[in-house]
Design goal:
- The structure is a single chain.
- The protein is of the alpha/beta class.
- The protein has three domains: about 120 residues, 3-Layer(aba) Sandwich (Rossmann fold), CATH 3.40.50; about 25 residues, no CATH class; about 70 residues, Alpha-Beta Plaits.
- Helix content is about 40%, strand content about 20%.
- The strands form two sheets. A six-stranded parallel sheet has the order 3-2-1-4-5-6, sandwiched between helices. Strands 7-10-8-9 form a four-stranded antiparallel sheet.
- The longest helix is centred in the middle third of the chain and has 14 residues.
- The relative contact order is 0.10.
Length: about 230
């Protein structure tokens, strides 16, 4: 296990392998992202699993995070059972790797603010998201069906993906119409996140693509892969 972790780079660390952690791990693996799971309850670790590297230990401790290769990791997701433990993990992880992308689960009201202050890039409340999804299933069932279809990894026909425009891409300086993304590639840009964080929804054909833009694109997998290669330059 230690040798496997030593050879990892740009992997994700998942703290907690309950119902939520197992779903997250499955989704990341489906997208070819290497995963290390930290779980202190031995009975929660499956006996036969060759795809995931499991590390038995306490994720709130620095030595455990170091054993999971946090210095070389790309991101960390903490979904432990209570906000205090998740907060502690975020503090430790941010101190060990300032460049790490950290997502933390929040349970209590107001915990999102504390988790972000501690260093989390995103704080997610499963109860809030679950409640909104149920309400939207009643109010807008077709919209929910479409979003679920386009965002789950097992649905390979069509996906929503985010693609970053590198400084060397030939897309820079062109309008969406000039880029050929729609006519030639057959993908649809539904939004653009600018380098300064501003979000532009439903951009027109005259919208100019800029360096370090993140394109939110809808399309078939092979077409999205083609666009990703062009965006990289």
């Amino acid at each position: 296990m230690k040798k496997k972790i030593e050879h990892l780079k740009d992997h994700f660390i998942i703290c907690g392998y309950g119902r939520m952690g197992s779903i997250i791990a499955k989704e990341l693996l489906a997208n070819n992202i290497p995963v290390v799971v930290i779980e202190k309850n031995k009975s929660s670790i499956p006996d036969n699993n060759e795809e995931i590297i499991f590390l038995e230990g306490d994720a709130t401790k620095d030595e455990t995070l170091k054993s999971a290769g946090i210095e070389k990791a790309k991101g960390l997701i903490t979904v432990l059972s209570n906000d205090a433990e998740n907060l502690y993990v975020v503090l430790s992880a941010r101190g060990l790797n300032p460049k790490l992308f950290i997502v933390a689960r929040s349970t209590e009201k107001g915990a999102e603010i504390k988790l972000k202050r501690a260093g989390a890039d995103k704080a997610v409340s499963p109860y809030l998201i679950g409640g909104l999804r149920i309400a939207h299933t009643v109010l807008r069932p077709t919209v929910v069906d479409f979003l679920e279809f386009a965002t789950r990894s097992e649905h390979l026909e069509i996906q929503i993906e985010e693609i970053e425009v590198s400084p060397h891409s030939r897309l820079i300086g062109k309008t969406i119409g000039q880029s050929g993304i729609g006519k030639e590639i057959g993908a649809i840009i539904v939004g653009i996140k600018r380098a300064d964080g501003r979000m532009k929804f439903n951009p027109t054909s005259q919208t100019i693509i800029k360096e370090n833009d993140i394109l939110i694109v809808l399309g078939e997998i092979d077409k999205l892969s083609l666009l990703e290669n062009i965006a990289r330059g």
